[in-house]
Amino acid sequence: MGLFKKIFGSSDDKKPKTNSESEKQIAGPNDWLAIAHRQIEEGDYELGINLLKELKEEIPNNYNMYYLLGVAYQRTDNFVLAEINYKKAIDLKPNHFDAFLGLGITFQKQSQFSEAIKCLEEAINIDRNFVDAYNSLGYTYKLKGDIQKAIEVYTNGIDVLFENIYYHILNNQEFIDEEIVAEKFKVDRWFETATKTIVQYAGNDGFVKIRFPTPETVVNLKENNPYGSKLFIDNGDVRTILPNMNNNFADKLSLNIRYANFMNNIGTIYLELGDTELARDYVIEAIIFTPKNVEFLPPLYNLDILTNEKKNGI
Predict the structure, then answer these.
(1) Which DSSP letter does residue 184 get?
(2) CB atoms < 10 A from the CB of 138, how many?
(3) In this structure, are residues 247 and 274 in contact, taking their beta carbons and an 8 Å threshold?
(4) Whose CA is closest to 231, among 285, 159, 167?
(5) pLDDT band, very low/low/confident/very high, at 308 (cuts 50, 70, 90)
(6) Where are the alpha helices (DSSP H) in 172-311?
């Protein structure tokens, strides 16, 4: 690979000798594919594209190579080549939902909304749990001017996100201290959706009655918790939900930007519609659920707009 020297600092166009650490780590085309992926994620699109072009000679039928080329070209606004490579990836792997997502976004950025919607809906048809596709689909409907459909898609995406989190919580039971997530209980939209999800899936498991702890019980369990990481107690056809279930929901919703993004996108719609109170509810929840280590500015901008409008009496 002629580009090896640019990545590892070799003075020769050829790979370093086999006794070097770099050579030991590079076994074949798939390793180069991983390097190209890393370069693209780090923003070195030119290098990533050139590496992938060289790989075409060795792995001409590798769908991920074409997908990564599509990503790189899309991010550099070369939409013609992005479309070509995404379509090639799909030809090689018809159920490549990531390629359908990328192709949909490529069409969206060119205001080809009908084509974008087809691709994004196909991504969801392939994998209904593909949360990112719902976000892009909702945004596409918003750009198209179909506001109610945009809100519907965002809401569906939130429901799917909560379903995914529910099963993650069941499979990875852990104790979450209420103090860690106390701020999340200042808002309630997530709590309502969590409750709906818990009731739905408890019902699917055959439980006729689902009970939630009273405020007094919550206080008692906070002071003396005999249940550890347990999420619920089952007795016959009755399932009693423990506070740790909701604490887990509050914690897991902040692990990435997805929930905050959905809430801000819906808040933005209501802000543009002039419903400032509803917009504020969504925007504040987006801010509260933004991961601590992530700089997510859109809801902060929206809150600033809402604050200034309130000061000005708008």
Answers:
(1) G
(2) 26
(3) no
(4) 167
(5) confident
(6) 178-181, 189-204, 215-223, 243-252, 258-273, 276-288, 298-311
Give, for 115, the enclosing helix (H) or strand (E): helix 113-126
CA distance 209 to 240: 8
Tell me the C-alpha distance between 204 and 289, whole Å: 28
Q: pTM for the full model?
A: 0.86
- DSSP 3-state of 280: helix
Helices (H) and strands (E) in the chain, counts: 17, 3
CA angle in degrees (0–180, nearest 5) for 1-50-82 = 145
**Angstrom distance (rounded) from CA 194 to CA 75:** 35
Confidence of residue 223 (pLDDT cuts 50, 70, 90): low
Strands (E) in the chain, as ranges, are: 209-211, 232-235, 238-241
Contact 248, 169 (CB under 8 A): yes
Burial readout 178-197 (b: 16 or more C-beta within 10 A, e: otherwise) = beebeebeebebbeebbbeb
- Using alpha carbons only, give the angle 203, 250, 163 rounded to the nearest 5 degrees: 35
Cα dihedral 239, 243, 248, 249 in deg (nearest 10):
80
Residue with tokens 């994998």: 127
pLDDT digits (tens, 9 = 90+) for 11-21: 344 333 333 44
